[in-house]
């Protein structure tokens, strides 16, 4: 089942962001997965304000793509470290596209967890790609090796947004090798 294709309506309000799934088998699975990840990984997600049958409400956040690129570079290493921490917690997000990266209280957080799965190996799928993690690519027409946000154009994110590697080192990447090393 391709849960990334499951549509959900997003409503921005003064009280937060409401995400509402359609009442289908796939919609219920996607909703249940997302709610579970918000509870399992509260340090990786915006605060969950409320949830109910097929909806969640989160605190309002700033999309990383709304931050001027020259200021956004300071969050690049934090995102890498967050992805490694999520993997160590036993989860692969599988859709770390920059449209799913937000800032809450000046900290990087991830949204859109409906396609996440338990990590299958210790290799972070969301950094090194599907093949490096011993998996088939999840997204249709994935960028090279499934790395959806680094050195590629996913069709939604700007081309080579952070992929120049500007300022990113192994040290800023929590000591882990960078893709291509």
Describe the protein's topology.
Blueprint: E1 8-13, E2 16-21, H1 25-40, E3 48-52, E4 55-58, E5 62-63, H2 69-72, H3 76-88, E6 91-92, E7 101-104, E8 107-110, E9 117-118, H4 125-128
Antiparallel strand pairs: 1-2, 2-4, 3-4, 5-7, 6-9, 7-8
Structure overview:
20% of the residues lie in helices and 19% in strands. It has 181 residues and is of the alpha+beta class. The longest helix is centred in the first third of the chain and has 16 residues, at 25-40. It starts with 7 loop residues before the first strand and ends in a 53-residue tail after the last helix.
| Mean pLDDT across every amino acid position | 79
Helix content: 10-25%
Report, as a whole number of angstroms, the end-to-end distance. 33 Å
Give start-end ranges of low-pLDDT stretches: none
Query: How would a crystallographer describe the biggest sheet?
Result: 4 strands, antiparallel
Helix/strand structural class:
alpha+beta
Binned strand content: 15-25%
Rg, Å, rounded: 16 Å
Helix tally equals 4
Task: Please identify the oligomeric state.
Answer: single chain
> How many β strands by DSSP?
9
One letter per element, helices H and strands E, the order comes to EEHEEEHHEEEEH
* Spatial shape: globular
User: Which strand order does the major sheet show?
Assistant: 1-2-4-3
Summary tags:
three-stranded antiparallel β-sheet; 20% helix; 9 strands; single chain
Short summary:
20% of the residues lie in helices and 19% in strands. It has 181 residues and is of the alpha+beta class. Strand 1 (8-13) and strand 2 (16-21) form a beta hairpin.
